[in-house]
Structures are given as structure tokens and as C-alpha cells.
Amino acid sequence: MPFPVSAGAAQYSGNFIPEIWAAKLIENFYDATVLAAISNTDYEGEIKSMGDKVNIRTSPEMTIRPYTKGMTLTVERPDKPKVELNIDQGEYFAAVEDDVDKVQSDINLMDTWSKDASEKMKIRIDQSVLTGMLPDIAAINLGAAAGRISQNINLGATGAPLQVTKTNILDLIVDAGTVLDEANCPESGRFMVIPSWVAGLIKKSDLKDASLSGDGASILRNGRLGMIDRFTLYTSHNVNVVTDGANRAFSCVAGTKMGLTFASQMTEMESIRAESTFGNIIRGLQVYGYKVVKPEALARLYIRQ
Fold first, then answer.
1. Half-sphere exposure (Cβ direction) of 54: Cα atoms closer than 13 Å
2. Which residues share a beta bridge with 55?
3. Residue range of the domain that includes 107
4. DSSP-assigned beta bridge partners for residue 194
């Protein structure tokens, strides 16, 4: 018989406190997080609390001028303002473990909850950054007339997201690569974040032929998307999704780590005694901030199913 519980309080008997249940909980499946793979933490520094600021020094750009013998040289004083990375966002969790549950449970509830909270924290932050960074992507690297030089590459625009099929998905990835090429974005370390349904289309595309991807086995067999046109592909459920007219539009971010900087710190992680009941409270606070420091090193593919 389970221990009596007050109205409104959680009853863990049959879930965490075993009656006939097995001793092992079913593992939670968490959304894949990609932020660590697509951003740099070069300026993380010392973060103690929300409101801190990291000053990022940026390299000034030199002007190249034509020269003729005997001319008077134009001398400049190269300068570029610093970029401020504000640590102004935070996420927290808090839960109480009743003393009775702690004694009767055959697993460490606190440990289980804290692990779950840390994974959910990563997901929340991924969602925040993958959406918040979009307005700062260089204008030449998105829209229906993308490309610093060509200005005619269609990566999808508000009101007209590109419809993606297994036939054209590879062409769109190549187009995104061309846009970054024209922006002089380094070829090494490029990434692209895509939703799972796009990954499915890639597996149905011509890349199912192993010889086209250069792999020893078809992606239908090994399940690895790997690299396409210099992009390492990351599948995520956290990409920005909006309703655009009659469509659901997805923003697939591409680029290199030099485009986005990120700083984060778990500033508080503590267990304290509850005052209003017999139990312990576990709570944690993570503060973070992000900044697009090189807009030209990022691009957006705006698509729909």
C-alpha cells in the first residue's frame, strides 16, 4: 500500500517506488543538441551571473589602393569597434524530493531529475539560439537574391519558402555553399543544421548511391549523412519553425563556427532543505549569451515540406 499523500502532491508509488515494477527506469530520449558544434566559445571568459559582459576585440579591415610611382600615399588609422557579448539570459529548474520518497525509492531520484534537467536545459538553449541568431545573418547570405557576387541565388524568403523534395535537396545545399563561397567564408569547418524530414529526403536522393557520396556504403545502409559539399550535416528538432501563409517554414542555418560565439555557465547548482515540508530541494541556474560576430560566415536556407 502506498504512503498517504496530501491533495495536489505527486504520488510516485508505481513509478519510482517499486511495487512490481522493474528496478530500471525507461531511458528518456532527448532532442539532439547542436549548439556546441556550430558555435565557438573563444570569448567565454569568467561568467559569474546574469548581466555580465564579455568584450570581443575585432580585427579592423585594411583598404587596398592602386599605386603609381611618386604619388602621395593615403595613410589610414585602422580601427573597428569592439563587440559586446552580453550574458543576459538564463534558464533554471527546481524540484523537491520528499523524505518519504527518498527512503522508499530504490533509485536516486535527485540524480535522475538533475540529469533530465541538464538535458532539457541544453534543448531550451539550442532553441533560443537557433531562433535568436537569425536576424543577424548577413543579408547577402539569405533570401531570394542571395550571393554577394551573383545576387540571384534563391535560398527562400519570407512569404516564399522553398519547397524541398528528394530531387532538389542536393541542389539547395550546393546553392547554400555557393553563397558562402561568394562571401569568402572559409571552406573548412562548415556546418548545416537540418530538421529530420530533410535528412529523410537526403537519404532518398541520389546519395543513396554510395559512389556519389564517396562512402564505402550507402547512407541507406549506414545511416550516416556525413558531409555534403563541405557541409557537415547536423539533424536537430530545435530549428526555428514558423507559420508562413499556408506553410510551416523551417530556417536551416549554415556556416562556420567563426560566425557565432556563445558563452554559458551553470552558476548555481545546489540542494537545500525545504522549509514547508520534509524534503530536499534541488535547483540549478544556467546563464548564457550569444552573438553573431561574423554575419557573413552564416547563411539561411528557408524551406518548407
1. 24
2. 84
3. 11-41+91-305
4. 235
Locate 300 and state its grid cell.
Answer: 539561411
d(CA 266, CA 215): 40
pLDDT one-digit tens code per residue, 232-284: 888 889 999 999 999 999 999 999 999 998 888 776 677 778 777 788 777 77
Burial class (CB in 10 A: 0-12, 13-18, 19+), 31: middle
Angle, helix 196-204 to helix 169-182, in steps of 10 degrees = 110
Residue 179's nearest CA partner among 154, 205, 207 is 154
| Angle (nearest 5°) at CA 39 between 33 and 45 | 110
Which residues are 243's β-sheet partners?
Answer: 248
The partner residues of 248 in beta bridges, in order of sequence, read 243
From the CB of residue 16, how many other CB atoms can be counted at a distance below 10 Å?
18
Cell numbers given for 86 = 552580453
Phi/psi region, residue 12 (left: phi>0; alpha: psi -120 to 50; beta: rest), is alpha
- Read off φ and ψ for residue 129, nearest 5 degrees: -75, -45
Q: Residue 3 domain-assigned?
A: no
CA distance 179 to 155: 9
CA 70 to chain centroid, in Å, comes to 54
Query: What CATH number does residue 194 fall under?
Result: 3.90.1690
Total structural domains within the chain: 1
Tell me the three cell numbers of residue 91.
534558464
Q: Of 138, 108, 126, 107, which is closest to residue 193 (Cα–Cα)? A: 126
Query: Does 29 reside within a domain?
Result: yes
Give the DSSP H or E segment for 35: helix 35-38
C-alpha cell belonging to residue 18 = 517499486
Q: In this predicted model, what pLDDT tens digit does every residue of 88-113 receive, in sequence order?
A: 888 888 877 777 666 556 556 667 77
Residue 189 C-alpha from the chain's centroid? 16
Beta bridge partners of 304: 163, 249
